[in-house]
Specification:
159 residues, alpha+beta, Alpha-Beta Plaits, five-stranded mixed β-sheet, 6 helices, 58% helix
């Protein structure tokens, strides 16, 4: 397989994000770099709110357009070298080197503001900052737990 074929196979054709397996490799590389250089690293677990409802009410092409729009909005507020990984159907994982959690949170608040302005869905995020003994799997698990907590808070606020 050529380098070009490898690159194409590592990128999600719909969103332009890394596919999960290739993205995990990149996240491991970036977390190793952060540990080696003493830089901060924040992993963000992103869940697209209402994708199933969009698919059910407007069809899967509309859901695909929503996923593409969300990836584009994230790309618009992240740096060119920040990692965006399509983790699952309606989930992304993003890795940001040399930023603190509050700076990352601001970027994702802007993503949600853009989505709201365009009358598109919103995203819910959970964040975890890399600790010395973390593996990528540890970091993903903490960010996923933070996402769950954020989703619960949002649900409680509606009740």
């Amino acid at each position: 397989m050529s380098a070009g074929e490898r690159e194409v196979s590592s990128i999600d054709g719909l969103t332009g994000a890394h596919r999960r397996d290739a993205g995990i490799v990149e996240l491991k590389r970036e977390t190793s770099r952060a540990k080696r250089t003493g830089q901060s690293f924040v992993l963000v677990f992103v869940d697209v709110d209402g994708l199933k409802a969009t698919n059910d009410s407007r069809g899967h092409p509309a859901g695909d357009q929503l996923l593409k729009a969300i990836a584009d909005r994230m790309r618009g507020h992240l740096r060119g070298y920040d990692l965006i990984v399509r983790f699952g159907g309606d989930e992304f994982v993003c890795g940001l080197l040399d930023l603190k959690v509050d700076e990352v949170a601001q970027r994702f608040e802007l993503v949600n503001a853009d989505l709201a302005e365009a009358n598109q869905s919103t995203i819910t995020v959970g964040m975890a900052e890399l600790q010395a003994n973390d593996s990528v799997e540890d970091l993903i698990a903490r960010a996923d737990a933070a996402l769950y907590t954020a989703r619960q808070k949002r649900s409680d606020a509606r009740d």
